[in-house]
Specification:
The protein has about 130 residues and is mainly alpha-helical. About 45% of the residues lie in helices and about 5% in strands. Helix 5 links the parallel strand 1 and strand 2.
Length: about 130
């Protein structure tokens, strides 16, 4: 990751934290080219290191309950959004003014997921809390 950042910012110090909020700032500063490099890095990393999936039974039960209650469910990943979480920009893809923000719940597993929820003013539930 540091290699991509140094491509755009030669003064980047690897000792700095690479939290997602930093990535969003780089996207804001360097635009689409940086975002594309970042997304491609993530895709390549996932393809190289991850295969298959693991069903988390408690998560599935929660999703089934929400579906039975006619709740709208959206899946938002950093690869499907124009900016990386915790930037609030991806929320625009699912937010409607017809709904109050208290009707949204961010379920996640990372600091950037929690930051995303805080940045847009919605509740957050960590999957570890199931």
């Amino acid at each position: 990751m540091a290699t991509i950042i140094k491509k755009y910012d030669s003064n980047f110090n690897e000792a700095k934290s690479l939290r997602s909020h930093s990535i969003a700032k780089f996207i804001d500063k360097y635009g689409k080219a940086f975002r594309d490099d970042y997304v491609n890095f993530g895709l390549n990393l996932e393809q190289k290191n991850y295969s298959g999936y693991e069903i988390i039974n408690k998560t599935m039960a929660l999703l089934k309950t929400m579906h039975q209650q006619n709740k709208n469910l959206y899946l938002l990943t950093s690869n499907s959004a124009e900016n990386v979480k915790p930037s609030p920009s991806p929320f625009k893809l699912i937010y409607t003014e017809d709904n109050n923000r208290n009707q949204y719940l961010m379920i996640g597993d990372s600091i950037s997921d929690r930051g995303f929820a805080e940045n847009i003013g919605i509740d957050y539930l960590d999957v570890a809390d199931f």
